[in-house]
Specification:
Strand order of the largest sheet: 1-4
Radius of gyration: 16 Å
Shape: globular
Number of strands: 8
Structural class: alpha+beta
Number of helices: 3
Order of helices and strands: HHEEEEHEEEE
Distance between the termini: 42 Å
Helix content: 10-25%
Amino acid sequence: VRNFNKKELHRTDDYEDVLDQIGQLAYGPAVADTQPFSFGWERDSEGKPNVGNGSDENPFLVGLTTKCLLRNADRDPSSFVFHMDGTFKLNQVFGGCTVPFHDK
């Protein structure tokens, strides 16, 4: 299944591929209102995103959002519920985090 997933569906858990994708989604002046962009990382000496490796000492941290989502969050905090789910203590590179906003 894993081989099929990688070869046929072009899914990979290769760390370098993830860094390239994060770099391609970097925020810039041409980002459209509904286009996702990445944030929350610095670049290393080679210019690649330094997002960590998922260990306890160097956690994998990166954010993804759009301009529209940020504008939606810019409102009275008592008018919505902020909820965040995440996965922790992973032995693979990928974690997951969901951050929905709900109206009260």
